[in-house]
TrEMBL record:
<protein>
    <recommendedName>
        <fullName>S-adenosyl-L-homocysteine hydrolase NAD binding domain-containing protein</fullName>
    </recommendedName>
</protein>
<dbReference type="InterPro" id="IPR015878">
    <property type="entry name" value="Ado_hCys_hydrolase_NAD-bd"/>
</dbReference>
<dbReference type="InterPro" id="IPR036291">
    <property type="entry name" value="NAD(P)-bd_dom_sf"/>
</dbReference>
<keyword id="KW-0520">NAD</keyword>
<dbReference type="InterPro" id="IPR000043">
    <property type="entry name" value="Adenosylhomocysteinase-like"/>
</dbReference>
<comment type="similarity">
    <text>Belongs to the adenosylhomocysteinase family.</text>
</comment>
<dbReference type="InterPro" id="IPR042172">
    <property type="entry name" value="Adenosylhomocyst_ase-like_sf"/>
</dbReference>
<feature type="domain" description="S-adenosyl-L-homocysteine hydrolase NAD binding">
    <location>
        <begin position="275"/>
        <end position="439"/>
    </location>
</feature>
<keyword id="KW-0554">One-carbon metabolism</keyword>
Amino acid sequence: MSASVQPPVAHAVDVVASEGEARHLAGELVARLAVSPDVRGMQWDEGAASWLCTLAAGGRGRITLAAPADPASAAQHTHRLVAVLEQGTPAEAEAFFRAVRHLPFTATEIAAAVAELPLTSRLAERWPHKPLAPVGVLLTIHHMRDFLVLVDSLIALGVDPAHMTVIDKEYPYAHTHRVDAHLVYRRGIAVWRYRDLLEGIEDHIGRVAAAGKRSVIMDDGGYVLPAVLRDLPAHAGHFTGLVEQTTSGIRKVDGLELPVPLFSVAESDMKAMIESYGIADAAVRNTLRLLPEEKFEGQPALVLGFGRIGREVARVLAGRRMRVAVFDTDITRLVAAHEEGFLTGRPLTDLVSAHRPRLVIGCAGSRSFGVEQSRLLPSNAFLVSTTSRNFEFALEELRQGSTAVTDRGVLGTSYRLAGGPEVLVLGHGMPINFHYAESLPNRYVDLVLAALAAGAVALSGGDERLRPGHNVAATNAILAESGIVDDYYRLYGPAGGGGRG
């Protein structure tokens, strides 16, 4: 007989909504639970002003729509949907809370995001002839509120939601479940998990090809096209091109013979000049949020990689009065770091041994930091990644070299190294700027999202400047011609008002 969950466990979701919106959202959740195979029945409990959920295996849950006890501590118009599993097995708890987490955003919440993304939300005014109607779109973009505004703009630009597919990268974003729910329940878009990537790609191709269309890939990390070329090469001809947002994605396609044009927002002048500082600042801010009791001023830090993000991370850490060292395998970047006043050295083990950083922030994505280097760290040191997935540190090597490995929950994983210190890998080695966070403010990321859409429009229209392979110069030219950078300057430049109004 399976053990029951003891004591009762709860999950709460705060939503910003009118009274009517909040009640409608709760009613939709109750209706979905009522038809779930994991639920035997739903009953309104008048005395407790809540819905009683009888689970199929005999457990019991309860759904309550409440208000914050201290309204001043929450955003205006906040409603709190509270789910409690009063009795049941761990399996029942998992199924019950999985349903509860999948709440679409309210119209009030979406309207706020739209107001924060004036460039992205108004793309259909720039291209009113629906230039994306001839294509399907396969997206692997971070699951945040801003992504939903981009999706709505792509639909307004002509993409049929039935011909869209979203790959959920399964990062622990602040609102990942709500984003998935909004895509499915509000927009009717197919969402596949990263672990089922190939199946999701094949499903997408089948649906879109049946409508006589080809597809544009919009990627953030080089997930789709390398998988197609490696595992589904016969389907490569289905795609008209790739829009890539990140440098890590560019590294994954480097060396591959690309049969389609690559619209490289990642390598564009626009992204280099505007976004890098924001990402670095978000990474450092989220690190400090997770470690509020730590004092880092005056402490040694090490930045791995002195590319666009690494350079800005080093500057942000120096601005927080840390003593910053930099390592890069590229000698030109190492020289640049030295001439900007950062401590540098070669090889990496010697630099770590001399500097003994308490904070190591990886921006290289190369697994260059493993047991050998970690054993040289002081006690209570932290490893932090800013790169895609968990590719920055040699985590399996750390695991094998440890006498104890402890899951620290939201903080990450600690490794007690044999013959060395205990180190904490924040966020389990996943990119820290997305770890239970929204990363960049919406107004900051607005330009990059608009640039992704501009790339999709150019690829859909068959812009003759876009040839198979990298197209950095053409990307820069098309983005300049689009006018989105001009609009960004008008919003946030010397005559702008911050995009409000």
